[in-house]
Each structure stands twice: as C-alpha cells, then as structure tokens.
Model the fold of this input.
Amino acid sequence: MPARIAGQRTKIAEAAGLALGLASKWSTLALPVLIPLVWLLPDGTPWRAKLLPALRAAPVVAFLPDLFSRPYPLSPDVILDVTNELDTIVSMMACHRSQVFEWLPWLDGRLDEVPGDEPGRRAWVREWLVRYLQMRLDRFRKEFEAAHGPCPGDRLRAIEVFEISQYGSPLDAAARKRLFPLVP
Done:
C-alpha cells in the first residue's frame, strides 16, 4: 500500500483531464462496451482489484520539483539536502540504462558523449545530475536556508524539493518523519 505518491504537477492534471476528456469525447453508447474490455478480467472482477489491496486511507501526494512559474510556482513544503546521497541517486539512475544512457542524451543531442565503459558512464551521469540539480538548488536555495539555516561554502550540492498536494492526505508531523527521514 503506497504511503506517498510523487509526480509532476502537470502529469496529475493531465491524468484527470484525460479521464474527463475521454468521457466527453466518447458517446455513452461506446463507454459500456470499451470499459469492460479494458478494465475487467475474464471472471468479471476489476483488473486492479486482484493486484492491489484497497487503500485504507489516502496517501500523501507530493509534487516533484519543476521550475515553472505558471499557473503558479512550486511552493516547497519539504526540502532535503541529498548531497550525501548523490552516489545512491547515480546508482539508481544507472539502472535505467536505456533512459539515462540512450534516450535522454539523444534528446539533449549529447548521445555521442556517453562513455562506453561502466565507470565512465557513472561519472558522466553524475556530472549530468549535479548540473541538472544545480538549477533546482539555485531556484530553491533561499527556501532551503529558511528551513535549515545557512549552508557553509559549497557543501550543499544537491536538494530534493516536494510540494504536498491537496489530492491526498495532509503531511502531519508523524507522516513527515516517516516519509522524509532525511529532514532534520
């Protein structure tokens, strides 16, 4: 059972919009035919009902960081210093080989820069990650320092930022401690 759900703000809105858009585009005559084909198992039970237990309470839903300014800028509720976790983040990213070493570099026009050996790839993705996280750090540094105090020198190299959504449960003190153990 999920304790938190994190996603881009636009993706949650797109999912809701897609559901509403499909309902408005298809006639009510087509919906009873399509939904059972897609969502029901041969024995008539809902497809997800066999895979996941029902939630007993709504999870905490958190928006992942973005640098958008419209319709409103992200308002961070949780800011974590993940500088000491960079190696773990790099290892997790490196597991997604086709995404990290093929698709994303191709999108950036940098596919020819990806090293062929494993140590080279890890160093390359770490350099990319630090550069990517620098934009987030520049954007949310004041909020980080307001929450955690000033950070001496350049010790702070990476942060994670979350805005708690109104779609789920509120983030009370107990949930904050359980879901974000890196927060002091």
The chain has a mean pLDDT of 77. The chain has one domain: 4-179. Helices lie at 9-25, 31-39, 86-94, 97-108, 118-148, 173-179. Residues 176 and 183 are 8 Å apart (CA to CA).
